[in-house]
Amino acid sequence: MEKKLAFLGPRGTFTEEAARILSLGQKLSIVPYPSIIEVLEAVSKKEVAYGVVPMENSIEGTVNSTLDWLIHEVELPILAELALPITQNLLVAKREHPLPLSAITRVLSHPQAIAQSHNFLRENLPEAAIETVNSTALAAKMVSEHPEEPWAAVGTRLNVEIYPLAFAREQIQDYSNNYTRFVLVGQDSLDLPVSRKEKTTILVTLPEDFPGALYQVLAAFAWRKVNLSRIESRPTKKALGNYYFVIDIDQKMDDVLLPGAFAEIEAIGCQVRQLGTYPFYMHQTNS
Length: 287
Ligand SMILES: O=C(O)C(=O)C[C@]1(C(=O)O)C=C[C@@H](O)C=C1
Prior knowledge:
Oligomer: single chain
Number of domains: 3
Number of strands: 15
Radius of gyration: 21 Å
Strand content: 25-35%
Structural class: alpha/beta
Shape: globular
Order of helices and strands: EHEHEEHEEEHHEHEHEEEHEEHE
Bound molecules: prephenic acid
CATH class of the largest domain: Alpha Beta
């Protein structure tokens, strides 16, 4: 039986595009799940072998539900990462007479898509109510199912091919350089194409009240000339002001440098948890 890969659905999300690219050449059937958390739960409970979820957007930053769930709720290694260009569009139900922007009363989308188009919406639809839903495609589907309502969705071009929708305006994101990084997670390994870039993501917990602890963590990488591409703090959820540090390292796990750096970090009382060591892919076009 074919293994399954879950993605944030319904049909027509950016995550579906990422899932299709990441599963090219693999014998996997792709199944939509209604939320990021349900995707990660399905993989964790082995209902499906793999999952694809968004991790970070170049305009809006980290998708907190993904990162927090991977930190606190499930133990699922990151197997691959894909950066995909994102183009947001304003979509309305297909009608005989096009709906002018001034008639739109309600805009639905995923919070990240709304945030990426914030200036456009503020300038062009100042009176419309903004409502967030679990995905851009869910918003598109809801708008298409209510053609009698003056509603719009923010989402991918692909939605116009999937649902009875039309463009009210194309390319509405506030910055043209808009990318989202998606991660593939799963408990089984997967034979993935070779990539020129590999990464390792770790979670570091600092000891309490230790002056200069973060400085020493960074020093362990600096003097080994190991490049870091992201450092982000997330609340431990145990007390106000307590943080984990999520660190992306620009190389895969090796036998010498990274074990040495981790041992040095642990020696000052920090904990290190690996979230994955994986290939990174960059895709230049989107639908
Ligand atoms: O709603 C979608 O289409 C998604 O795939 C989610 C998501 C996200 O969470 O960032 C993915 C890419 C875009 O940045 C906007 C939304």
